[in-house]
Write a structure and sequence with these properties.
Radius of gyration: 23 Å
Bound molecules: flavin-adenine dinucleotide
Structural class: alpha+beta
Strand content: 15-25%
Largest sheet: 7 strands, mixed
Number of strands: 18
Distance between the termini: 6 Å
Helix content: 25-40%
Strand order of the largest sheet: 6-5-14-15-16-13-17
Length: 476
């Protein structure tokens, strides 16, 4: 799009990285792409996405309910419509009218604010700052009001214990995140611009690859880079796992900063202390994922449920877990054949290292542990949904070690840096001194990741490259 000749080297046999949905027999197991912020022109993010995604090829579903939370005997339907959500929360806790209104009003406002993306902050001059402050004043005010409030802190404002518990379970293990991340997500859904793309992750990836190849990009799958070659502090290309050296004027990495510095640039003296800093920045948790292909339909069930396991899972050093997120994929016929359903169950696990060490040190125990936990998950599903075990046609169990093995993802984190108050709105470096012509993109330069987030960052990285080369940036 900007006159550069580019090649992507991807270590896996398919594109998609952490967003990739894998096929097992007739089933597609898609744990990612729950929603796409900017899915309709109602949000300004849509213009950004449209630069790369051909929306005429995409069918979007706007669900009525984002997630159903079940805890003990109570249920909270998190409606995408903010007014309906307000009514639902008031049904449980009329005494919390004030805080419920404050929360749902914020959701209504969030849909109307536009997230700035047209220019990367690195290229801002004084005029840009002044224009930004003036034109985005409503966004800035909103941002400052909510940025510091964590999910936990807001939950403590509810007098009603049931509502508080249900609220915390909308995003389990995310209670330290800024509530702004929740408000923005629900804000896009409220204006019907946070829908689900039919075909899920793989459809999005297919469209992105199509656009890239049509623009003249070259793609090498199953090709792992092991070293970024540098001479006199200037990038000269990469070395592949098979030993081949590929020359290049510039290298753009989408891996995390630690991996980039400690593996791909291990021979270089990076002056930034960012690799050490990375250890201290909170990330999204890793995932234990049980994917089931079942010969049954569940049309009457909610499509996404946050629920409690019948028995607490005690993994010793791996942690203690009692909640799971269940995705019943009956809403997308492309994910399994008629009369069958893909079910994805995710347990969020910060202790990723436990699984990596167990797999390395005792593979048979690792396999047994996987099966034991999957059994506990299936028992809970069976109690809640009726017969499941007897109709399972396909089962796939992924641990944090699986995600790391396939994508090199930092700490097994499913979505990069956590949007905690100290990180929200912050940009990490897109270059690494003193190495010239090396650029960083993807979810590791901006908290909260997400498909629109990484498209925004990729645009900014491309803009910086064009700026450095004195080229006019173009999106055509
Ligand atoms: C379970 C789950 C649910 C999610 N839900 C949503 C959602 O609903 N909506 C949303 O917008 N986002 C969602 N996300 C987040 C979103 O998918 C990610 O933020 C985004 O895909 C990250 O893209 P990336 O390119 O930055 O990183 P990655 O996907 O990690 O891409 C990096 C790529 O580099 C490759 N690679 C690594 N090392 C090497 C090497 N040495 N050589 C060659 N290639 C290498 C990897 O294989 C990978 O393909 C979800 C993610 C997960 C896992």
């Amino acid at each position: 799009m900007n006159g550069y000749s580019t090649t992507i080297f991807e270590k896996n046999s398919e594109c998609g990285g952490v967003s990739y949905a894998w096929k097992r027999g007739d089933y597609t197991f898609d744990g990612a792409s729950n929603w796409l912020a900017g899915s309709s022109p109602a949000s300004s993010m849509h213009n950004l996405l449209s630069e790369l995604l051909d929306f005429s090829q995409l069918e979007i579903i706007d669900p009525d309910i984002f997630i159903t939370v079940e805890h003990q005997q109570s249920t909270l339907n998190v409606y995408c419509d903010a007014e309906k959500l307000k009514e639902e929360m008031l049904r449980i806790a009329p005494e919390d009218f004030r805080i419920i209104k404050k929360f749902t009003d914020a959701i209504k406002t969030a849909g109307t604010v536009s997230l700035p993306y047209s220019k990367p902050p690195e290229l801002f001059n004084l005029w840009d700052y002044c224009t930004f402050l003036f034109s985005q004043s409503s966004f800035i005010r909103f941002f400052l009001k909510w940025k510091r409030v964590t999910i936990k802190k807001l939950s403590l404002e509810f007098k009603n214990n049931t509502l508080r518990e249900l609220f915390l379970r909308i995003f389990p293990r995310h209670e330290h995140f800024s509530v702004m991340s929740v408000i923005l997500t629900l804000g896009w859904m409220n204006i019907k611009s946070g829908g689900y793309p039919v075909g899920g992750s793989n459809k999005l990836i297919e469209l992105l690859v199509k656009k890239y190849l049509a623009s003249g990009g070259k793609l090498h799958l199953h090709t792992e880079a092991t070293v970024i070659n540098v001479e006199n502090n200037r990038v000269i290309g990469i070395r592949l796992k098979n030993g081949d050296n590929i020359s290049a004027d510039k290298v753009i990495v989408a891996t995390d900063l630690q991996y980039t510095i400690r593996h791909l640039l291990s021979d270089q003296k990076i002056t930034s202390n960012i690799a050490q800093r990375c250890d201290t920045i909170p990330v999204f948790p890793a995932l234990f994922q049980v994917s089931l292909g079942v010969k049954r339909t569940f049309c009457a069930l909610p499509h996404k449920i946050s629920m409690t396991l019948d028995e607490t899972i005690d993994m010793g050093e791996g942690g203690i877990f009692s909640e799971m997120m269940v995705r019943v994929c009956h809403f997308d016929p492309s994910l399994s054949r008629p009369g069958t359903t893909s079910i994805i169950v995710q347990i969020r696990i910060p202790q990723y290292q436990y699984w990596v060490d167990l797999r390395n040190s005792n593979y048979s125990r690792y396999t047994e542990e996987k099966k034991r936990i999957a059994e506990m998950v299936i028992s809970t599903l069976e109690r809640r949904f009726g017969s499941i075990r007897s109709v399972i046609e396909n089962i796939d169990i992924a641990t944090p070690a699986t995600f790391i093995r396939y994508t090199n993802i930092f700490k097994g984190s499913y979505q990069g840096w956590a949007p905690v108050p100290s990180m929200i709105g912050k940009t990490l470096p897109k270059t690494l001194k003193p190495v010239k012509n090396l650029y960083i993109t993807g979810q590791w330069v901006w908290a909260a990741g997400g498909i629109p987030g990484v498209i925004r960052i990729a645009r900014h990285t491309a803009q910086i490259i064009c700026h450095n080369d004195k080229r006019k940036f173009s999106v055509r």
